[in-house]
Design goal:
The complex is a heterodimer of chains A (127) and B (133). By secondary structure, chain A is mainly alpha-helical. Chain A has five helices and no strands. In chain A, α2 crosses α4. The longest helix of chain A is centred in the C-terminal third of the chain and has 31 residues. The radius of gyration of chain A is 21 Å and the shape is elongated. The N and C termini of chain A lie far apart (61 Å). With 133 residues, chain B is an all-alpha fold. Helices cover 75% and strands 0% of the residues of chain B. Chain B is built from four helices and no strands. The chains are: A mainly alpha (127), B mainly alpha (133).
């Protein structure tokens, strides 16, 4: 940051101009979750029992497995965007904020990848 | 917050957490944040655990099912389902506010109460169906 001219003192203090994209992205994820999470809740509510063979056979079918992978993508994506807003509001130290956002991305991508792998094991495992 | 050395000392502060009167819109707003972060930090790890346990075979599934079916497991699952339904209703309220509607104080308060009631009613209906059918 400059220390002399008035323009030098304010440069870099405005918005990053990425807010609109973040706003639209989180709303697309929300619409996905508006469909997919109720699908999961209704599917679980209608399940005849909660034994391993019943649930495993259900999630091994192509349509539930596809829906579950889409649900993982949209929920982890919305969580990643939403928690970012919380962190930006409450974590004021620049270094700590950057570290928090890095940790958030690692957890969101890592957790989502782990969950998708589990669905693939169920759907493709043939057990 | 006193900032005597800052050039903004003495400037009026915008209404913030400690100097704002509680109202339904404010309650719905902070509950939206709490329920969303609850779903992210508690709900998603449990979703991942659910899927990993299911993928890990029957011997991996049984401990998950035992925890999920215990009294504390049900408390967590009921809390998560309420967080979801509340966040869903509150999120739909945000869709409406985003198009510029519903800011009149009476309307805003009324729909905030409707959001709170919707979250509670949907949670009750869901668990009534699961537990009583």
């Amino acid at each position: 940051m400059g220390n002399g001219t008035s323009i030098g003192r304010v440069r870099g203090l405005g918005s990053a101009k990425h807010g609109a994209h973040h706003w639209v992205a989180i709303r697309f994820a929300e619409v996905g979750n508006l469909v997919l999470v109720p699908w999961l809740l209704v599917s679980l509510a209608l399940m005849p029992d909660y034994s391993w063979p019943t649930l495993h056979a259900w999630l091994a079918r192509p349509v539930p497995a596809t829906a579950m992978i889409l649900l993982i993508l949209t929920t982890f994506y919305e969580a990643r965007l939403g928690v970012q807003v919380m962190m930006e509001d409450y974590v004021h130290d620049h270094g700590l904020k950057f570290a928090s956002l890095v940790a958030l991305n690692v957890l969101a991508v890592g957790g989502g990848a782990f969950a998708i792998l589990s669905v693939l094991r169920i759907a493709l495992g043939g057990a | 917050m006193t900032a005597s050395s800052s050039p903004n000392a003495g400037r009026p502060l915008s209404p913030h957490l400690s100097i704002w009167r509680w109202g339904p819109a404010m309650a719905v707003s902070i509950i939206h944040r709490i329920s969303g972060n609850g779903l992210a930090f508690v709900g998603l790890p449990i979703l991942a655990w659910f899927l990993a346990a299911l993928a890990g075979g029957e011997e991996a599934w049984v401990p998950f099912a035992r925890h999920a079916g215990s009294w504390y497991g049900l408390v967590v699952l009921i809390g998560l389902s309420w967080s979801f339904f509340q966040h869903l209703a509150s999120g739909l309220r945000h869709f409406v506010l985003d198009i510029g509607a519903g800011y009149e104080i009476e309307t805003n308060n009324r729909w905030s109460w409707v959001v709170l009631a919707t979250g509670a009613v949907l949670t009750a209906l869901f668990w009534a169906f699961v537990l009583l059918r």
